[in-house]
Design a protein that fits this description.
The structure holds two protein chains of two kinds. By secondary structure, chain A is α+β, with helices and mostly antiparallel strands. Helix content of chain A is 56%, strand content 18%. Chain A has eleven helices and eight strands. Chain B has five helices and three strands; from the N terminus they run αβααββαα. Chain B is globular, with a radius of gyration of 15 Å. The chains are: A alpha+beta, B mainly alpha.
Chain lengths: 382, 119
Amino acid sequence: MITLTVIAVSIAVLAAAEYAAVAARAAGSVARWSARLRYDDPERAAIRAEELSALLEQQAWNLLKLATALRFACAAVRVRAHRTVAGLYEQMAAVTADGRVVVKKMAVVAVAGGMALTAGVIAESALSGTPGGIEAGSGSVQGAVPDLDAALLPASALPGFQAEPAVTDLSFAELAAVCPAAGASQSAASAEATESFGASGSAGPDISETLLQSPPSAAGRLLTQLADTARVCEAFTLNVDGATLRVGMAREAFPVYGDGTVALRITVEMMGNSTVFDSDLVAVRHGGTVMLITATAPRLKPGLTRSAIAAAYARVTVLRATAAASRAHLAQISQTQWIITGVLVPSVAEAAIAVLASNASSTLARTASAVSSSQALGPGAP
Amino acid sequence: MSRPSRITGPLLDVSVCLLRARSHGDLVHGWLLMKQTGCSGPTVYGVLDRLEDCGWVTSRWEDLGPDTSRPRRRFYELTSAGLTGVRELLEHRRPEELRDIARRSHGGPVPRLAPGGAS
């Protein structure tokens, strides 16, 4: 009985709507709204709105007009949703671009802080940290530096120095002959890059930077082995080109960077000549990335090695953070593809996209803030 | 010459109708295309959007007398570029329908298109 009543009332309402031409007026409104929703071009929207009104006139029944108009409305919502998703990609691209600007600004701050990072080169490296370049040169190591060569310090980061061929006077290989522990410190890294610098127009000091990429556990073992080297090979002699060198090695107090830092002071004395060379060897681990800095000079200037390590650490940190942020953006875009499926009311879709874009922007801001803080605090910052 | 971004079944249906109308000198509007193709209104207008965007179709308003109160209809027709493009498209995708159109309009078989679309 109730069912029959409901059916009867529905029929009566529909009949009234048909008779009173309410449905026809509603159809016209829905059709015009559909055209405005579907087309961004106002001229085309106006044309289609009038055209759809003419099309509805072809329908004999008012309720059919409304049904036709609703069909156009559904299609318009679907088109709008697709267009909004496309807009999301543009917004994400814009956010990523802003992030790169942040990285450039951070590089300028680093220069002001005495770390002498080059904004242009950092920005170039950041660009190579885009989604397509994350895996390049780093295998599948999560959080790895995207491009080790790009992460090396440029000569401009070390004022008064210029790039030179690698210094090989006191290599691990030669050390290994008399101190096996030093030989054991050589890592089977998955990727490696080296750059050497010499002071312009003088006999020293010389600085060398080596970046090693390997799984974090292997990188941790490298630092442990390096510390063992100083303990086992405290003093020994070495023959190089007919000269006898007396070598002393000791752990050196050094600020802690990243996940671990080992610093050695190596003193080399040429027998019968009383010439003494000091060499600092500092290794810093950041995840699976190990930065090795050596500085050598007859009288090593205090603070030189620390400045070089600070600059190298800041550079690697920026590149790792940029790569991580790019990964986060990719993940958010992927999530969005799942969220915005089917037909959504445009306002809901746009709201969801605004939230996602805001989240992406916040991620980059937090990344920038964290990197900036680590540079401002210097040693010991995570 | 640019082509529509996507070649779909409804696009081919609408193209056949537009080519047939042109060969007969008829004018077609959205409602007529819906009836002839059996496609829904949104689908037909989506196709017309794509054809207009690539320059294959042009449109103009219906001329109504001052005493007419109903909304104007909009007529669609193939441009010369669209004529070439549609013929080339149908030659590859629906050759039988292309020949049928030619038979009905000329009373004889349509010559095959040379490679590159020249007829």
